[in-house]
Amino acid sequence: MGSFNISLGGVFILVGFSDWPQLEIIFFVYILIFYFFTLFGNTAIIALSRMDPQLHTPMYFFLSHLSFLDLCYTTSTVPQLLINLRGLDRTITYGGCVAQLFIVLALGSTESLILVVMAFDRYAAVCRPLHYMTIMHPLLCQALAVVSWMGGLMNSLIQTSLMMTMPLCGHRLNHFFCEMPVFLKLACEDTEGTEAKMFVARVVIVAIPAVLILGSYAQIARAVLKVKSTAGRRKAIGTCGSHLLVVSLFYGSATYTYLQPKDSYSESNGKFIALFYTIIIPMLNPLIYTLRNKDVKGALWRVLGRGTATG
To answer: For the whole model, what pTM was predicted?
Structure first.
């Protein structure tokens, strides 16, 4: 197979789920429904965090950033997937593919860093409750958010730039969007040095944040065990349980996709794992954070109450 002409005029074919044509209409319906709930749930969290003064806290400041990331991440892939599933257009230009790869990597990398910041916030809330508001000063919160976004953009820029130096063979991407492991499968020359650099970048943005989060929760667990009252323990666990579940879902799928060797990566399995972290997790995050959260439920009733009173 000859080397594919990598230029802005080149075109890739996104195979998507065309290998299972009998499932495409089922996928289309369910993914469309999930996408609607993702948009609604994450938009609601952002709106409530801004509209209700009682949610003007570090936790909900970072949660609104997480919701915005999930909105953008899902929207960067799902509309194209829906078009692909209907068989209307399975192609994407090289320039469009590179742009999508950059956006997806930037948003995913930023989310990884935001989850670290949220773990630090939970550590401060549980382990340093008397100094929490001093530690999590609004200026520090804003600075941590900016650093997370800049770090995500920088990591994406590095990986995308390295990918663009790789010669690719073929024009069929066995995926429903442009993702790094699929590009690595198309490399037609020995790119071991480039792949090693990209792997280091992925370790920095996936493995190191995961270790930092585990360290934070180890300290939180020690603090919780020292709490004598059952009510105090329950409150501490409730404060951190939702975040820990989100972390497990995010880093579990990210580890499978980005930290395994290229030769052992299964494109078929990778597509279904990608459905999980591009659609399911962004849809579940608002539910996980709000289902048993009295603050959010109270904020919703207050906002609805103000709207009714105004009307």
So the answer is: 0.89
